[in-house]
Design brief:
The chain has 539 residues and is of the alpha/beta class. It is built from 18 helices and 27 strands. Helix content is 38%, strand content 23%. α4 runs antiparallel to α6, α5 crosses α6 and α6 packs parallel to α7. It binds glyceraldehyde-3-phosphate. Glyceraldehyde-3-phosphate binds next to loops. The site of glyceraldehyde-3-phosphate (G3H) has 9 residues, from loops.
Amino acid sequence: MSAMLQHLFPEPDQVPEAHRIPAFIEQREYLIGGVLKKWGGTQNAVFSPVYIKTPDGPAPKAIGSTPLLTKMEALEALDAAVRAYDLGHGEWPLMSVSDRIAHVEDFLQRMREKRTDVVRLLMWEIGKTLKDSEKEFDRTCDYIGDTVRALKELDRNSAKLVEEQGFMAQIRRVPLGVALCMGPFNYPLNETFTTLIPALIMGNTVVFKPAKFGVLLIQPLLEAFRDSFPTGVVNIIYGRGRETVGALMETGKIDVFAFIGTNKGANDLKKLHPKPHRLKSILGLDAKNPGIVLPDADLDSAVAECVTGSLSFNGQRCTALKILFVHRSVADVFLEKFLAAIRQLKWGMPWEPGVSLTPLPEPGKTDYLSGLVSNARQHGARVMNENGGAVFHSFFYPAVLYPVNEKMAVFHEEQFGPVVPVAVFDDEADVIRYVVNSNFGQQVSIFGNDSAQVARLMDAFVNQVGRINLNTQSQRGPDSFPFNGRKDSAEGTLSVADALRVFSIRTVVATRASDGNKQIINRIIRNRESGFLSTDYIL
Ligand code: G3H
């Protein structure tokens, strides 16, 4: 294996022309108050997880740099967002829903033109395969289109007046204020936009800080953001989280905190807000989703789901299956099939056809994963697959650890990488206890056919996690399904429709249904005197 790994990384001219990135991308622009400003200060170097062969061996490739803005620019961005919101009297929060939709549709059209650039940067910045990078881009565009459709429907349902107990009223959703949106490095486009776009379309103004990796890929979209939205509605900053985002939270001027990352990061930032009751948080956090293989499971299908569940994008998905519990009666056969399937996974560079295992973007990640493997070995687990845990610079070949137990760090910690811990169980009560006692509560996957047992487990988990998957891996999609979690895994629920709700609040205009009041209401509607009180129907 180690001899083969020597050929993992390409020479510069072995990168297919279509996937080469242009020379070093020195990105100095950031967006504040409708202006793309140029940063003259220190830059943050962006290294690709894709190393390049040199005569001295593979070397990390510096593909660009991004601005290391300071607290001052962050606060300037916040001021721009606060001004654009103008205590709810800004052009954007008062704009009609159909006009806001037109701005978002304009953005979507401009965004689609940048597909090639963004997809290429997804591959180079985070090592995501070409296929998955394209999928991330297209899924994000679909999400924006679906959001527009969902908002139209929401608005149509609010277009009518309601009469109740002698009152007549109109109930509509309005924005919350200034939103801070931060996404994760594993879905730097998709997950970020699943909060950013709903926040915007509902009339909030936004400060957006890209993830820690997958930062350059926002650059091709900066002009689209600038040109599609009114001044100050979207502000995009770069820099160290603590310095920039910490300063924003301390002002107390952030009304909505949309963050996908670790629960520790979210806690630290939330605590900085001086008026916590004024801060609405929408958080997607850590997870340790178990896959449970029951004695009568269809093993071929369970293996296929567990392989993609635990190893797609090298296990770097919050929804990944991060521990497998296999019933003792099928453990040997399951493992044999599972290891055979893993042997088939092709490793290589993100653009290679059919590849699924690629280098990891986080510096130090391979050391962390190797540490988990040696800790598990010390406590009695074996690495079951040939070459499991082999490391070559930023590349880590998947390690299947078996049997794992509660003494091992990997039993509890979210590895967020290509290490697959497999535990054996005799009694389903042990698996239930694992889920109940876990600090996380995102999803579980149950693989089995005995309806009575499946139902028993489902009922044991319904108050523990946000989604129970039967004979399928854990996942977020379809994006119309609610996506949430319990305990340290999430706060709030996202989906196309739910996101519109979490970034807004209902306001009611109500009156006693007397003849005089009805006449006033009628006049307001007929003469189109109010933006809120209106029966206009978006087609
Ligand atoms: O990283 C967490 C993502 O929301 C997972 O989404 O299940 O579609 O990969 P996915």
